[in-house]
Design goal:
This is Outer-membrane lipoprotein LolB. With 208 residues, the protein is an alpha+beta fold. It has helices spanning 7-31, 39-49, 119-127, 133-139; strands spanning 54-64, 67-77, 82-87, 93-100, 103-108, 113-116, 149-152, 158-165, 168-180, 183-193, 196-207.
Length: 208
């Protein structure tokens, strides 16, 4: 690691099929408040897809049964790579993560360098924090990349998304948004998977 998937029944079916269909349709509506083909949703996602260069600063609060971590984060995104820097409230960098086509590279607080093809695994091995780092590149903008289910608000932004990988189900709740250069972007989110919770508070978006 270190650098180096019968007639009675027929009558019953005819009688109750309309009711079943209504219940199914109602269930679909409660799962997703707005159709994903709505103009608002499509327009919003187009804006997010065009957002390929940006910087984010904010705070992270990570909680699991064994630890609680509060850190500042600085995220820089470009088409070529993603960069995540974590620092203490005093400004000392504790970890710098770079993800590109080759894989993930990390420099820790002591200057040691590490590499792995799996960014999620490398991040966990060095921080003991289990997070879907790769997908968060889009989720933090409000794009439901690789999500199994998601809910959409009236203005086309995401209310929540859910993704299951194996036996792990991640849920991202979008609790607040801000407008930046005609793009509505998340500023308060909670990412969770029992018993893990990550609170994300964005203090500044910079669109380049």
């Amino acid at each position: 690691m270190q650098m180096t998937q019968i007639s009675f029944f027929s009558k019953w079916l005819v009688r109750f099929t309309p009711i079943v269909l209504v219940l199914l349709l109602f269930g679909c509506e409660t799962t997703q408040r707005m159709p994903t083909h709505s103009v608002e949703y499509q327009d919003h996602q187009q804006k997010l897809s065009a957002l390929t260069h940006f910087r984010i600063t904010g705070k992270l609060g990570y909680i699991d049964p064994t630890q609680r971590q509060s850190l500042n984060f600085h995220w820089k995104q470009s088409p070529e790579k993603s960069e995540l820097r974590l620092s203490t409230f005093l400004g000392k960098t504790v970890l710098n993560l770079v993800i590109d086509d080759e894989g993930a590279k990390v420099t820790d607080i002591d200057g040691n360098r590490y590499f792995d093809k799996d960014a999620d695994l490398l991040f966990y091995q060095l921080t003991s924090m289990r997070l879907p780092i790769v997908y968060m590149q889009d989720w933090i903008k409000g794009q439901p990349t690789a999500a199994d289910n998601f809910q959409v608000a009236d203005n086309g932004t995401l209310l929540s998304l859910q993704q299951t990988r194996g036996e792990q189900t991640w849920l991202m709740d979008y609790k607040g948004y801000q407008e930046n250069e005609d793009v509505i972007l998340p500023n308060r989110m909670t990412l969770s998977r029992e018993p893990i919770k990550l609170n994300i508070a964005v203090s500044k978006w910079e669109i380049q």
